[in-house]
Amino acid sequence: xxxxxxxxxxxxxxxxxxxxxxxxxxxxxxxxxxxxxxxxxxxxxxxxxxxxxxxxxxxxxxxxxxxxxxxxxxxxxxxxxxxxxxxxxxxxxxxxxxxxxxxxxxxxxxxxxxxxxxxxxxxxxxxxxxxxxxxxxxxxxxxxxxxxxxxxxxxxxxxxxxxxxxxxxxxxxxxxxxxxxxxxxxxxxxxxxxxxxxxxxxxxxxxxxxxxxxxxxxxxxxxxxxxxxxxxxxxxxxxxxxxxxxxxxxxxxxxxxxxxxxxxxxxxxxxxxxxxxxx
Length: 279
Hints:
Elements: E1 9-12, H1 22-38, H2 46-53, H3 57-82, H4 87-104, H5 129-136, H6 148-155, E2 160-165, H7 169-179, E3 185-188, H8 199-208, E4 216-220, H9 223-231, E5 235-239, E6 258-260, H10 266-273
Parallel strand pairs: 1-2, 1-4, 2-3, 4-5, 5-6
């Protein structure tokens, strides 16, 4: 761990760091499946019903993980090819990806005559088109980790706290408003015409806040994000979150300047480590 500089601004990755992803995805899928299976008005076919009943919570958790990875690949490919992401397209792809994963498991029955953009399903599927659309919007209602709001309240006493996510600004504002996470500012990578880990994002965010890079920290649950920020002069604060690290091989590189372990209280522990005592 390096000596901590005089920090003024804490930038935060959002998805996985401030809001949980893996468990809420599984919870939504599992709950929606139970509701559909127990509905008296449901027209689920016997074959689909059998397959759905065989799906344990762990199976839905695994499906949610595949869904998350598929969307990450889609956005990364878009950035690599075009250096931009059409977030309306990403929302559409979230539905398309879910449709594909459920079809592969025999849980929905696609219409053979529907074109790719329609994603229509036949009667007998576990869910109809309206239910699938609602499920695909789970990304807009992900809940904060239990320590997030209290930790931000404490940190706000000494620092500016700013989102810095690759998601688009509208989605971030909606998510933050819904979850009441008390950030002082909401920034997204598209404000700087690029995406993390491009230096333009970190350096642009610091400039927009009117501070030097060495007066900034990035708080994230993802080492590749922290590696990019640290290369720009940011202090790297790693808050471990269950199942959120996507590049565990980077653990060998000793990237974090400060590490909050998974069994600590996340942002509340971070506030204490930065000299702020909970009241």
